Amino acid sequence: MTVAPSAAAAPLVVRTSEIDDPGPLLSLLPDQPAASWVRQGEGIVGWGEAARFESSDTDRFETAQAWWREMVEHAVVRDEVGVPGTGAVAFGSFAFDARSARSSVLTLPSVLVGSRHGRTWVTTIAAQGVLPAAADLSVHRASGPGPVSFADGSMSAANWELVIANAVERIAAGDVDKVVLARDLEARTAGPIDVRWLLTGLAERYPGCWTFAVDGLVGATPELLVRLERGLVHSRVLAGTIRRTGDDEHDLALAGSLARSSKDLEEHEYAVRSLAEALAPHCSSMNVPESPFVLHLPNVMHLATDVAGVLADGATSLTLAAALHPTAAVGGTPTAAAIELIRELEGMDRGRYAGPVGWTDSTGDGEWGIALRCAETDPSDPQRLRLFAGCGIVAGSDPEAELAESDAKLVPMRDALSGA
Ligand SMILES: C=C(O[C@@H]1C=C(C(=O)O)C=C[C@H]1O)C(=O)O
């Protein structure tokens, strides 16, 4: 089912103007549904909603793209800044599985504030005939939800280990080379959960990640599915993980062992190859480094490869995200068989976890991350949050180690929630 107002009925009026630095982007969010895409203090935040598209259909990407094209075509825009992310911007979050019961969404905030390379701007968006929301750029402070308790989500940790063991058998039997399996955790809090509190905590601890919020999905992802900017395409592929110990010297030795681990290098190779193969038809030239580097995050280290390309076919960032999703970093190899195995073994609906999350502007430029290290709020219960984490399983995977890895990947959201 697709729910979207007709763009033609109410063309949008969009105004972007440059402003003086109003303070940290995340501190500007008022107590309203928040949208965010912030890294190292730069990016875009938004609030309010001028228009919305929602779909639970299997062709969610195509219908979203068509809706956005129509919105943009009819919009009346005055953009005094003219860089990627100014003018009309839609934030989006897509369900991982085309068969998910969870919808995918594009939302246009009514106020956006962006910052890039030292320039800051504000954009207001309203349907024609509607007075645009006043852009109140005062600074706000969010508060935490109080004591938190965690409980098993769809499956206990012990059962999840059995699922991993089962997946290793299926890999040995030749069903797939790699499959990414995830688990969820349920958090309950004493008071209501304020997304701004989570965002601020995540951005503080994980400044190198993309701190995102779209329609109640909130997290800090280290993995960039695709960025399209003026014809240049970038992607950061992650796969292969080791937990940090907190002891810098020991962690450095672990980073070395990660870079030499044949199990992790194999897992990583699958992810890079699937990304490069999906991107190649859209690019005239591509740079795919031969070997990965080690990305250091406060909780884990990952094998990482930054892929770059020159766009050849005029695709939009959203079209590219749709073409690349699901990469082997969150699906597996081969893709179709891995998705079937996830449906069979995982025992839950991932919803928007591990789906593309990010933004697009009216030119089609944009940034889409993979929704990892994240959680979904519950619109009917402000004291409930569902957290997710997953791991790539290959022939050499050990269930106990994978459970520990998934716990390490839950740390960013757990800490953000408890304010640790
Ligand atoms: C699936 C997740 O992470 C992905 C899986 C990784 C792995 O298995 O090594 C590493 C980074 C991500 O591509 C997650 O964080 O939930």
UniProtKB/TrEMBL annotation:
<feature type="domain" description="Chorismate-utilising enzyme C-terminal">
    <location>
        <begin position="158"/>
        <end position="409"/>
    </location>
</feature>
<dbReference type="InterPro" id="IPR015890">
    <property type="entry name" value="Chorismate_C"/>
</dbReference>
<dbReference type="Pfam" id="PF00425">
    <property type="entry name" value="Chorismate_bind"/>
</dbReference>
<keyword id="KW-0413">Isomerase</keyword>
<protein>
    <recommendedName>
        <fullName>isochorismate synthase</fullName>
        <ecNumber>5.4.4.2</ecNumber>
    </recommendedName>
</protein>
<dbReference type="InterPro" id="IPR004561">
    <property type="entry name" value="IsoChor_synthase"/>
</dbReference>
<dbReference type="InterPro" id="IPR005801">
    <property type="entry name" value="ADC_synthase"/>
</dbReference>
<comment type="similarity">
    <text>Belongs to the isochorismate synthase family.</text>
</comment>
